[in-house]
Amino acid sequence: MVNYYEVLGVKLDSSAHEIKKSFRRKAKKIHPDIKAFGTSQDNCHRKMSSLLTAYEILSDPEKKERYDRNLSVYLKQLRFNYREFLKKRKYDLASQARLIFHDLLNSNYEEAIELYENITSTNGEYRLELFMDYGDYMDCLFLLAEAYEISGEYIKSFNLYKKLYMNEMENPYFNHFIEEIIERLRDLTCFKMMSILSPEMAIEYIRELINFNFSKKDDAFFYKKIAEIHCILNENDQAVYFLKIGLSLDHKLSGVKKLKEKIGFPEIALR
To answer: Which of 16, 43, 104, 236 is the one with CA 20 to 30 A from 151?
Structure first.
């Protein structure tokens, strides 16, 4: 786990003003346009990218709070071999839940997924939320969904992101960060999962998102995607029907010109 306080050269209890001041000072030193003699352009870009990420996290109160919580856990674990300690307690489900979370925090995605699947396959009623507080559970669930997404297990990733969203609606935790979860659900369903699903199944997953009522603009986009699938299937009447719904929700819906031409969309229908 990267210590963004070290990247910015500030203390854990630094104020927002001190964080901003340190960021500006360091940015001036490593900016690619004013790099020091003998420093490669690529190295400057890498350092600048790391600095920007650190500042983005630590200057946002909500992101900083979430990061501080995870960093606190990580720093405590550095004091001894926490992972080995947890691994030895393989019959303690609470310890195994913490091990999954630990591996996810340290980007050990394969190990975390393997352990999670081994436990859930042998303990049908195993639920992570029973072995950690709600905040850690939500963070762990998000990281697990992300790990599945990175490994190409899109259906499993979708189901976990969906569970996160439903949890958030019942008991808010992420607050504004929920938009990130919605964006990932949209990206998975409307793009990544298209390559592994039949057209009919793809439509069913998109319908699931419509049922969440994210926003009119989101729903308009989802109906357009359904129309595109029907177009691929040469079901132009169905395509026209769903595109009409999409445009009724967002008359400025983008990316529809070529689709309209392909399906023979009757422009007069919207006047």
So the answer is: 43
**pTM of the prediction?**
0.69
Q: What does the alpha-carbon distance between residue 174 and residue 145 come to, in Å, rounded to a whole number? A: 15
How confident is the model over 234-267, as pLDDT tens digits? 999 999 999 999 999 999 999 999 999 999 988 7
Q: Which of 62, 60, 63, 59 is nearest to 24 (CA)?
A: 59
H/E element, 207? helix 199-211
φ, ψ of residue 222 in degrees (nearest 5)? -65, -40
Q: Look up residue 229 and give its two tokens.
A: 């699938």
**Phi, psi values for residue 40, rounded to 5°:** -70, 155
Domains of the chain: 4-80 (1.10.287.110), 81-174 (no CATH), 197-270 (1.25.40)
Find tokens 């007069």 and name the residue: 268
